[in-house]
User: Fold this.
Amino acid sequence: MAIKITINIVLIAALVIVQLAFVGNLPYPASSLKLVLIALLYILVLVSLKSSLWWAIGSGALADIYAMDFFGTSILQLLVIVMIMHLLLVKYFTDRSIYTFIALASIALLTQDAVRGLAGFAGGLIYGSPPDLSFEFFIYEGYALLVNLAVVAILFYFVNYITVRFKPVFLIRKQK
Amino acid sequence: MFRFKLKGYYRIIAVVLLLVFLLNLGYFESVKTFVRAGLNPALQAVYGASGRVRDFFSGNKDSAELSSENDRLKEEASRLTAENARLQTLEEENEILRKLIDFSSKNSFVLKPANVLIENYSNASYSDVIIDKGSQDGIRDGFLAVNSAGLVVGKISNVKENISRVELATSEKCKIAATIQNEARTTGITYGELGLTVTMDFIPLTELVEEGDLAVTSGLEPGIPRGITIGRVVKVEKSNNDLWQKAIIEPMVNYSNLSIISVILGKTN
Assistant:
């Protein structure tokens, strides 16, 4: 158990370090990749809600350690996103097809953008600057979404190739 | 079904919310500092690696220089070994630090060199960076950050024990008291626009500002010495109906290539 926890902590730290220090410094649109969100989606579908929640807490906490204003923004944001993805997964997307992954990833990314947008709007009110709702902003967000969905799709086919977890199971009634 | 499944997680979420609350009250600050001290070297190493990846891709994008750049790189690649590359990195860092010391001694500034750990934390394009020095190194809110050439990079906007956030001059949150080096010595406040340029607003129409004029810090803010270059005026916007004119300033710092920057702590006695 302790080894499992340690491995998870190391993996979470590695993921957050790559997201913060590596991805953020890459040329656009690669810099808009949301590796943590994509990882949470796959953990939710492949492993369990519990694991996904722990990963959300761990990765959110590490990201928040470098947040200068308010500790907890990333944790709460990721927890909400995992909950929404879980709700949609069990209520609406009952299969594990690529369409499910694309839909869940899109909703997760848009939710994160909406939360960030609201935070930015609140910040704008404080600093007296209007929120950026220009055409370029939406183009930027559109490209970011496409890049992330492309990665989700590539990962889906890769995981599908190495495991049977996404493949449908047919229950065959035994003939008496 | 969903409600039932979530029941087991209420406790986890309640504990997390309590921890978030306590951490925001300032408890466990030493734990955060300890974790950051462990993560900072890894972030620094990964940030350096990403810079090399970005340089590689951005070099390929410039088709005009592609041919000559390619030849030069081929020549370099055949000559340099892995050891040489490592030594070159060290030499570059040494050069930056040497320039910083030179800048510091020429201007009698007390500088605190710092490594950039994270770029763009707030997710807006090139608006801030996180550095690996904080209050324990003497850094305070409002101090000025400069590059190795002594050009303004930005302003410290938030300080923790062992990290700080630098709001880049091109960020709209970064406001610097500045002077334009024209005949009238126009003074005002500069602020960033769209992560690309710097603007000085509310300049009286009677003052002549021209393209090419340098904008420097005015020294009217506490903790910020005067005469540090912010950028060069590239455009002046005015119309006859306006009371004021506006100068668009292009920063002279390459923000996509920041690895070591320096914070001005004050002047030597």
